[in-house]
Every structure is written in structure tokens, then in C-alpha cells.
Amino acid sequence: MLQRPDPFDAKCPTRQVLDRIGDRWAVLILISLERETMRFNALRRRIEAISQKMLSQTLKSLERDGLIDRKVFATVPVTVEYSLTPLGRTLSQTVHALTLWAETHIGEVEAAQQRYDRGEATPEAAATPPR
Asked: What is the pTM of this model?
């Protein structure tokens, strides 16, 4: 019988995929490529604060995982374009849903952070009677 993957096991391949897509740079690259094919420098300009090294490493990892496609054109200088693969498109739908959730609930998250920073209990915790 085939055993179901256990992402809590450090050696589980599922965990490696979750680690990759949980990376903030990977998510931002996937969001960027969801709309259009982009060149390296266009991605770097689009994603503020990402270093050239981190962008290059993340792109290589996403390409290795089959999520993005890298096309090289024999020009001077060489032109390289990145786009989502069909597999990457299936993941970008999920990432898009997470982005919408973040955009919808950012006000609540910021309010919770401010309450936490002031040392206040959350409204839910204050309303819950002790056990």
C-alpha cells in the first residue's frame, strides 16, 4: 500500500515543495509571471528589495521544480525570458488566492499586530471565559 506523504517529516519531498512555495521571493516571482513573460531585470525591478543573487537562485529553483520555463535567445547581449509552465500555472492559482486573502484581511492583521505590540489581548481571547 502506498504511504501518504508526511510533510512534517524533514525528508519528505512534499515538505521540500512546501518550503519552496512558502518562500517569499518564490511567491512574488510566481505572482509576477502569472500575468506575463518577463526578463530577469524586469523581474528585479518589479520585486523591490530582491538581490540579483537571490533572484537568480530562486529562478533556478523554480525552474528545477518545473514551475517556470527559461528561454534563452541568441542576441548580443543574450536575452533570457521567464514564464510559468502549465504546472506553474496550477500553482499560481493557489498563490493568487493567498494574495487575495492577504489583500482582503490586511487591515485585520495590522490591527492584531498593533494590539499585540501594545500588550493587549485579542478581542476573541478577551471574550472567551477561562476554563
From this structure: 0.81
The 3-state DSSP class for residue 14 equals: helix
Give the H or E element holding residue 81: strand 79-84
Rounded CA-CA distance 54/61 in Å is: 11
Query: In 3-state terms, what secondary structure has residue 38?
Result: strand
Q: How far is CA 102 from CA 108, 114, 118, 126, in A?
A: 10, 17, 23, 25
Of the candidates 72, 76, 78, which has an alpha carbon nearest to the alpha carbon of residue 59? 72
- pLDDT, tens digit, 9 for 90 and up, residues 12-38: 888 888 888 888 899 999 999 999 999
**70 beta partners:** 82
By DSSP bridging, strand 38-39 and strand 68-73 are unpaired
Instruction: Tally Cβ neighbours within 10 Å of residue 83.
Output: 14
For residues 78 and 98, give the distance between their C-alpha atoms in angstroms, rounded to a whole number: 35
Helix (H, G, I), strand (E, B) or coil at 74: coil
Report which residue type is found at 34. Answer: E
Nearest residue to 112 (alpha-carbon basis) of 125, 101, 100: 125
